[in-house]
Design goal:
The complex is a heterodimer of chains A (about 210) and B (about 625). Chain A has a domain at about 5-105 and about 115-140 and about 165-180: Pyruvate-ferredoxin oxidoreductase, PFOR, domain III (Pyruvate-ferredoxin Oxidoreductase, domain 3). Chain A is globular. In chain A, strands 2-3-1-4-5-6 form a 6-stranded mixed beta sheet, with helices on both faces. Chain A is of the alpha/beta class and about 210 residues long. Chain A has helices at about 20-35, 80-85, 105-110, 120-130, 140-145, 150-160, 170-180, 185-205; strands spanning about 5-15, 35-45, 50-60, 75-80, 90-100, 130-135. Chain A is built from 8 helices and 6 strands. Chain B is α/β, with parallel strands linked by helices. Chain B has 4 domains: about 10-225, 3-Layer(aba) Sandwich (Rossmann fold); about 235-345, 3-Layer(aba) Sandwich (Rossmann fold), CATH 3.40.50.920; about 380-555, Thiamin diphosphate (ThDP)-binding fold, Pyr/PP domains (Rossmann fold); about 565-625, Alpha-Beta Plaits, CATH 3.30.70.20. Chain B contains 23 helices and 23 strands. In chain B, helix 1 (about 15-25) crosses helix 2 (about 40-50), helix 4 runs parallel beside helix 5 (about 85-100) and helix 17 (about 425-435) runs parallel beside helix 18. Classes of the chains: A alpha/beta (about 210), B alpha/beta (about 625). The interface between A and B is large, with 65 and 64 residues. Strand 2 of chain A pairs antiparallel with strand 8 (about 175-180) of chain B.
């Protein structure tokens, strides 16, 4: 874990309604709590649902601009497989990509105007695009935590589990307790831990 | 966090929350707004602390009313803030062009949140033109901290000058988050006192002339004050190029200059106020021969610099949006700034290898588009389905659907495809009147949301009745201003501060306007809705159908809070023959097409509305119990 990076760029890519903005807020809140200077851009259109949504999270000593340049994300937190591909321009070749395998099929595909690539195809492309790819089924872990809607916190757990950010696990937990709706803390923490452990196990395995 | 004490403490704030915090620090007593992306969180944040801090906060029926509410408070001596999105200022423009002449007593700040790139709006208009046109001062922050600091200063400035002050944000500031250092909260609460002064407050024929002269004098004084504010800053580096940047573009320039290592070669003037600081501009013009300007979206600074250069007889090259060195329209980003800078200075920018370019191209080719769609379970989708069927039964062909602003505008996308026009709030009924009077052959159907109807639909509906239009108005009433984040409106019976109030009945308003046919339907009862719509469509005059179903997001949120499970639906593959009627005519995002060439329901997305089961001609969709 680099505890005091010059600059760390985290990109969240997902679909409106997946709770990606709350994930962005949790990560940002924890970063400020750790004493970092931070600039974040939540980029979404008018709709509450259904469109592509990204958050640019930039922390470090000199960050001033909330929107990262292309080719500068150190970490991709991908909420949906094709949204990871849509974000390709922003990724550094040495980026670590965390990819939720659960797909959300766009209407263009259902109506037969476009096709959705297979998960194998997406994985192969992601592996070409970046140095490290961690795939996880965050939706199943969320259901295991007791709520299909909290994929976002599973993925925050996955991010923490990479140990690739300078934010400590306990600070993430404090942020979650502070920001999730009252009464849902327990299942959210369970979701966080499931995501954390899943990624830790995968990274351990890839080391051996 | 908006209301917490703690001078000097660093907290994470959204740009809009920083504006709210600034207003709180400045001792705002009245705040008013109409929701609109990217401005909505400002009033939400103020309302969240309103009781605790003794602030009055309201969602007004529209932006014009919101601004008038703030004017009333400010000319009674209170500090007031009205916030709205870019196109909302078009509504507030009418009072804005008078209050500039009357001026104010208490500080009055009008926050205009622009949307360069038009990601969440019908246009990318630049509201800085309003400050120029009304001859009022305007501040424009470059980051979240400055958004807070400028809001505080805007109130002081407004009282120093006796003029309203505009604060211009863009979406990249509104929806940026950053660590912000808090200031002190002003505790003073003033007693409202309106001093009658007809020559000042009553703007009628003859009274404007002296006030316009007064305004111009005040603006000249404003220019002197603005020159001294820290929001304008000349950072002298080198004289190869002078860069001028405003708003978030300044942060793009800072990063681009550092990336290209140009610190010693260029000088940067950060512009944060309008009128633009003339002295700093003169100083920059003295040292460089070329100036490059980054601003969103209109070439306002660019044209101003040309004026100053002419007045000062400076032989400088002014480059920017008009010269083609910066794209003429749309929002900017750091990559575009890097491109412009490297071209103008002839330096090498960031290079992407050919191999990687091919790879990125492949990724882009593999990525399907993701059009915005109405949510699974959205009552609007059910309304559109019933309307489509009713129109087909009546007219044996399509209607002309004049559309409006809200979630239901997404009905423009396939497969619904039922928004033929969209201009601005309330235009569905006004433009629909025009179609009717032009005597188009098709039936004319205006579709408008509940909040939009109350915002701007009523005068147009009265017009339709008065001028004998033949028009069906469908009010898609989901009991919330859903597109912008579920804010309450006059039809919901709840105020911004969470108090219960009289709920305005849309059907009663429609009846009072004189519509000859007014009915309320529940769009989840598909056949009943179709039958009522057929009646409405055959009415010879103005018919109004209020299609009422609570926004599914609110329904699901309530259910989650209560711990209630949602009833799910499933397609029986033995019964489904793959006709795709459900996908092509109704198009819920939870309906997917599987490899076996049958429809399948996504169990995570399904909201259990049950409309698809009524749509399926083979009755192949069944409830499978609560999950």
């Amino acid at each position: 874990m680099n505890t005091n990076p010059e600059e760390l760029n985290i990109l969240i890519a997902g679909v409106g309604g997946q709770g990606n903005l709350l994930a962005s807020e949790v990560i940002s809140w924890a970063s400020v709590k750790e004493g970092f200077k931070i600039r974040v851009a939540d980029i979404f259109g008018a709709a509450q649902r259904g469109g592509a949504v990204t958050s640019h999270i930039r922390l470090g000593k000199e960050v001033c601009n909330p929107v990262m340049p292309q080719g500068s994300a150190n970490i991709l937190l991908g909420f949906e497989p094709v949204e990871c591909l849509r974000a390709a321009n922003f990724l550094r070749p040495d980026c670590m990509a965390i990819v939720n395998t659960r797909t959300i099929v766009p209407s263009s595909v259902t109506l037969g105007q476009a096709s959705y690539p297979s998960l194998d195809e997406i994985t192969a492309l992601m592996q070409e695009l970046v140095e490290k790819v961690v795939m996880l089924d965050a939706a199943s872990l969320a259901i295991k935590a007791g709520d299909a809607q909290i994929v976002n916190i599973v993925l925050v757990g996955a991010l923490a589990g990479t140990l690739a950010t300078p934010i400590r696990k306990e600070t993430f937990i404090e942020a979650i307790k502070n920001l999730v709706p009252k009464g849902t803390e327990e299942r959210n923490l369970k979701a966080f831990n499931l995501g954390f452990e899943d990624v830790q196990a995968k990274l351990d395995k890839s080391k051996n | 966090m908006i209301g917490q004490e703690g001078v000097g403490e660093r907290v994470l704030l959204l740009g809009n929350e920083a504006v709210a915090r600034g207003a709180v620090e400045a001792g705002v007593q009245v705040a008013s707004s109409y929701p609109g992306t990217p401005s909505s969180e400002i009033l939400e944040a103020i309302a969240s602390v309103s009781r605790k801090l003794g602030i009055y906060a309201e969602w007004s029926t529209n932006e014009k009313v919101a601004f008038e509410v703030s004017i009333g408070a400010a000319i009674s001596g209170l500090r007031a803030l009205a916030s709205m999105k870019s196109v909302g200022v078009n509504w507030a423009a009418d009072p804005l062009f008078s209050v500039n002449q009357t001026g104010v007593v208490g500080g009055l700040v009008l926050v205009a949140a622009d949307d360069p790139g038009a990601y969440a709006s019908q246009n990318e208009q630049d509201t800085r033109y309003y400050a120029l046109a009304t001859e009022l001062p305007m501040l424009e922050p470059a980051d979240v901290q400055e958004a807070k600091d400028m809001t505080v200063r805007a109130f002081d400035l407004s009282e120093e000058l006796g003029l309203p002050v505009m604060l211009r944000l863009t979406a990249r500031i509104c929806h940026a988050r950053a660590d912000v250092t808090l200031g002190e909260i002003r505790k003073e609460r003033r007693q409202a006192k309106f001093k009658k002064e007809p020559t000042r407050w009553v703007m009628m024929a003859g009274r404007s002339r002296p006030r316009h002269k007064w305004l111009i004098d005040r603006l000249s004084h404003a220019q002197d004050i603005l020159e001294t504010l820290p929001f304008n800053r000349l950072e002298v580096g080198g004289n190869e190029l002078g860069i001028i940047a405003s708003g978030v573009c300044y942060s793009y320039v800072k990063e681009a200059v550092a990336k290209l290592k140009l610190e010693d070669r260029v000088s940067v003037l950060k512009v944060g106020t309008y009128p633009i600081p003339r002295a700093s501009v003169r100083k920059l013009l003295d040292s460089v021969r070329t100036i490059l300007i980054f601003e969103e979206v209109a070439p306002i600074i660019e044209q101003y610099i040309k004026t100053v250069a002419f007045d000062e007889r400076k032989d400088v090259e002014v480059r920017g949006r008009l010269s083609g060195d910066v794209q003429r329209q749309w929002d900017l980003n750091v990559d575009l700034v890097l491109d412009s800078l490297s071209k103008v200075l002839n330096v090498r920018g960031h290079q992407v290898s050919e191999e990687r370019q091919l790879l990125l191209h492949k990724a882009a080719e593999t990525t399907p588009t993701r059009p915005l769609a109405l949510c699974a379970g959205c009552p609007h989708a059910a309304t559109y389905y019933a309307l489509k069927r009713a129109v087909y039964k009546m007219a044996k062909g399509p209607a002309i659907y004049s559309g409006d602003i809200g979630c239901y505008t997404l009905g423009a996308n396939l497969p619904i495809d039922m928004q033929d026009t969209n201009y601005c709030m309330g235009a569905s009924i006004g433009v629909g009147c025009g179609f009717s009077q032009a005597q188009v052959k098709e039936p004319v159907v205006a579709t408008i949301g509940d909040s939009t109807f109350l915002h701007a639909g009523i005068p147009a509906l009265i017009n339709a009745v008065y001028n004998k239009a033949r028009l069906t108005v469908v009010v898609l009433d989901n009991r919330a201003t859903a597109m912008t984040g579920f804010q309450p409106h006059p039809g919901t019976g709840v105020t911004a501060m969470g108090e219960k109030t009289q709920a305005v009945s849309i059907e009663n308003v429609a009846k009072a306007c004189g519509a000859g046919f007014v009915e309320v339907v529940d769009p989840h009862r598909v056949e009943d809705t179709i039958a009522v719509m057929q009646k409405g469509l055959s009415h010879d005059g103005v018919s109004v159908i209020v299609s009422r179903g609570q926004c599914i997001r609110d329904v699901l949120r309530d259910a989650r809070r209560k711990g209630e499970a949602t009833e799910l639906y499933e397609v029986d593959p033995k019964q489904c023959n793959g006709c795709k009627v459900c996908i092509r005519m109704f198009g819920c995002p939870a309906l997917t097409w599987n490899d076996a060439k049958k429809v399948e329901i996504d169990r995570v997305l399904c909201a259990g509305c049950g409309v698809c089961a009524q749509v399926c001609p083979l009755e192949a969709i069944h409830p499978v119990g609560a999950q």
